Amino acid sequence: MPVASVSSTFVLDNGACSLKAGYSSWSSPNVIPNSITKAKSEKRRIFIGNQIDECRDLSSLYFMLPFQKGYLTNWDYQKQIWDYMYGKQCLNVDTPSKNLVFTEPYFNFLSIQEGLSELFFEEYRFKNVFRTHPGDLTCYKNKMEHPEEPCCLVVDSGYSFTHIVPYVDGKRVRNATKRIDVGGKLLTNHLKEIISYRQLHVMDETYVMNACREDCCYVSLDFERDLTKAESRTESRDYVLPDFTNLRRGFMKSPEASNGRPEDSEQIIRMNNERFAVPEILFHPSDIGIQQMGIPETIAHVISECPEETQRWLYQNIVLTGGLAKMPGFRERILKDVRELAPNEFKVIVRLPEDPISYAWQGGAALADDPIFRELSVSKLDYQERGHQACVDKYYL
């Protein structure tokens, strides 16, 4: 947990995979898994959020997720996780004395919005609440770092989806916002299927294989070239699976040590073309039957739907956020493919923040100190007088 002073505003970037949570005065947030987990080794206990770090055996975990397909569907799970996060065991937040900056999904359903308003004001009793989208906070943070840029295109590659969101003068172009139904969850599931078919049954090992994907996969800059290398198996790497006794998380061996033969007590997976073929789904979703454009084509399509005078500026300020943006080669591939699609006279600049996972949270923390925060937020008094309509009038979600 970051050691810093406690401010009056709490910032919660509420992702489907993880919560990025902390006071606006902190330099970085706590990242807490947005899930409740059961383990076969400890059947009498459930692990809420980051309590999973206390679990001794992380094999065959069962996840209870509040979010399905990017939207909040199980309120009981989410409230349990929030209660734990706000409670003394975790961040110890005195919610009635705090303001809240909260992110929710794009195009959120009205029934979910109403439920969130009720929880924040009636259950947790926050003083003021500002609800927004991760892209809005990313745009705000980007404007602080690059005040000369009038436009910004946010590519948010998260757990459930990838969103392409254009901003002109700080305002989202709603009718041009697009979603691709590919995210980290789908990539991990696809990797599980491939490994289970070719080598070892890992369909129940979501936690382990998600770590494997993070440690091994990269985005190819030349798919045909890498495929030729993979056929010769000179680029194969061994991934050592954890045994949860001596090794809690698996790791990928160096090229020199990857000979396909496990050492004593080791269990390995031989990673070959899976390393770059799985992330390729982000660029060709049709490879697994999702009839949608890949990220670069969607970027070009989104920009083409924005006013003509803004297109030049959108191409030269593309910001990558979300967990998938951390994959090696992701930024370079986006830049390469978008450059081929963009008009020759336009400059293409793709920016990758130092920490793409917490970048939106950092924007929320900065916004909390802006005098405009009071104008943007809904007070508890407003909500008591007009109910959820006060939120609808303010946010236009």
UniProtKB/TrEMBL annotation:
InterPro entries: Actin, ATPase_NBD. The lineage of its organism: Eukaryota, Metazoa, Ecdysozoa, Arthropoda, Crustacea. This is Actin-related protein 6. It is found in: Cytoplasm, Cytoskeleton; Nucleus. Transmembrane segments: none annotated. Coiled coil: none annotated. Keywords: Cytoplasm, Cytoskeleton, Nucleus. It comes from Tigriopus californicus. It holds the Pfam family Actin. Its main location: cytoplasm. The keyword Zinc-finger does not apply. Belongs to the actin family. ARP6 subfamily. One of its GO terms (cellular component) is cytoskeleton.
